[in-house]
From TrEMBL:
Keywords: Kinase, Transferase. This is Guanylate kinase. GO terms for cellular component: cytosol. The lineage of its organism: Bacteria, Bacillati, Bacillota, Clostridia, Lachnospirales. It comes from Dorea formicigenerans. Essential for recycling GMP and indirectly, cGMP. The keyword Transferase applies. Belongs to the guanylate kinase family. It catalyses: GMP + ATP = GDP + ADP. Pfam families: Guanylate_kin. Transmembrane segments: none annotated. GO terms for molecular function: GMP kinase activity. Residues 2-188 form the Guanylate kinase-like domain.
């Protein structure tokens, strides 16, 4: 029976970096590429970070019944959708997986695949440090989207509230104030099933 190790946390908590490093350390974990209608960020590649699709392509997946979970964010640049699509990427009879997403998507995947298959890996960082990281990242963009950065930061306060974390069954937190220590702790827990 395979497991889906599901990395989540507020924006700029270091999820993407930890995801890449975990994948390097544990190459036997398969990954699932999510779909999004949002524009590519500087340095992102189609099929690697996401499958970048149009709204019409997303509607086709919905009509075909292939949407496992779908979230829509009303950003300052319009509605951006993110989805997990039933496209043959996941086979829990054969593999373990490493995925990344939100608390909301974690709940939907847990419902779809079953709680026994989902393992939450919740990343936490102090809010001031997260804001600093977000600002640094946004400044590197060709067209910085500061308003959207602020919207995400504020939305995370509600999306990852203590009540929501409790309701989702999140018990363990990985503090990403020291990336190497955080990474080592996650890898050890995955290797030895310490969940």
């Amino acid at each position: 029976m395979g497991k889906i190790y599901y990395i989540m946390g507020k924006s700029s908590s270091g999820k993407d970096t930890l995801f890449r490093k975990i994948k390097q350390e544990l190459p036997m974990l398969q990954t699932v590429t999510l779909y999004t209608t949002r524009p590519k960020r500087e340095g992102e590649r189609e099929g690697v970070e996401y499958h970048f699709v149009t709204d019409e392509q997303m509607h086709i997946f919905e009509r075909q019944g292939k949407v496992v979970e779908l979230r829509t964010y009303n950003t300052v640049h319009g509605a951006w959708k993110y989805a997990t699509i039933e496209d043959g990427q996941v086979n829990l009879a054969e593999s373990d997986y490493l995925m990344i997403g939100t608390l909301e998507s974690y709940g939907k995947l847990k419902k779809y695949y079953g709680a026994a298959y989902l393992v939450p890996v919740y990343i936490e960082v102090e809010d001031g440090e997260r804001l600093n990281r977000a600002l640094t990242r946004e400044r590197q963009q060709e067209v910085p989207r500061y308003a959207e950065m602020c919207r995400r930061f504020l939305a995370d306060t509600e999306d990852f509230s203590e009540d929501h974390l409790r309701a989702a069954g999140i018990k363990k937190r990985y503090y990403n104030d020291d990336q190497k220590r955080c990474l080592d702790e996650i890898i050890e827990d995955i290797r030895y099933g310490k969940f």
